[in-house]
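User: Hey, quick favor. My workstation is busy. Could you predict this chain's structure for me?
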Amino acid sequence: MLNATRIRLYPTDAQAQALAVQFGCARWAWNNALALTGELYRATGKGLNYHAMAIRLPKLKQEFEWLGEADSQALQQSLQNLARAFENFFAKRGRYPRFKSKRDRQSIQYPQRVKLDGAKIYLPKVGWTKCVVHREIDGRIKTVTVSRNACGQFHAAILTEDDEKAPKVSTVGKAIGVDVGLTHLAVTSDGSKFDNPRHLKKATRNLKRKQRSLSRKMKGSKSRDKARKLVARAHERVACARKDYLHKLSRRIVNENQVIAVEDLHVKGIMSNHNLAKATADVGWSMLTNFLEYKATRAGKAFVKCDRWYPSSKACSECGFVCEKMPLDVRFWTCAKCSAHHDRDINAARNIRAEGLRILAGGQPAAASGGNVRRSAVRKNRVRAVA
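Assistant: No problem, here it is.
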């Protein structure tokens, strides 16, 4: 089973300079191969594969001697990542690869020759670098990705592989549905509501002050670079706070339940609404879903995504009656068929739970604790979960 651990690096000034050189070389190799691939494709209709890109490297090193300052395998890995990016683009799993900028996050990848010894890590062309390993790293090291964020912090993502197999998924236990929103980040089918911390909104005043200070600095000056790092650091704090909260929430949900059902939201479409874009970006729905999925997989628990067109908010969880319209300002409503009074979010979570059990059972009775659940009007095949 593969495991990834992200640790913090504390390189010296000389080591930071050596890493910056490797960042620049790997970035240049990516941009050069991307530009040549685009030119060949426009001229002949065919691009370059990884083999053709790698053959060019020795000649490029003879022409540009400064490429020899970077680790050869790091350059090859950059080209492999570019070839994989093109494969994902043609398979419609990603967008067309873009040119890398020296002002964005920088990273290089080492496929071999990385050693870890206590609070030190050996990186090719850099040497032994001080690091903080917050948890034990077991297994064989596959790759190590060294990155530098906008505020100048260095991290290493260590991918390891051990001989353990992923546990088998079991559906015997408590099942829960999770409905996400803006007022409450998550509402579960058992009635629990988790508030939205609104990390970005709380930090808006601080961000505005630092951004105004940055805008007054002269371009190219050292004071502007310092102000830019302060702004980046403020954004980093917001991102870390959001990630920490979502990690804790996802861990709690996974620990307390065996079957977890969520809704597959079209976040990109929601972001197109300028009234909801900022709040949607701050809440982190996709990050929460990803955390729930990988933690459930590692714990041997079932994770189900319901279709985004499933009417979880408009359907009555008691009788299955579906309303024609359900505006966002309606938070409580009464079913016109069975007269059941519903909290919009809890009702949606219950419907998501029932739909998740239906998907797991394939239309047949499923074993999961929590009582009987019937779906008759929303879907043709009925679902019953018997405790």
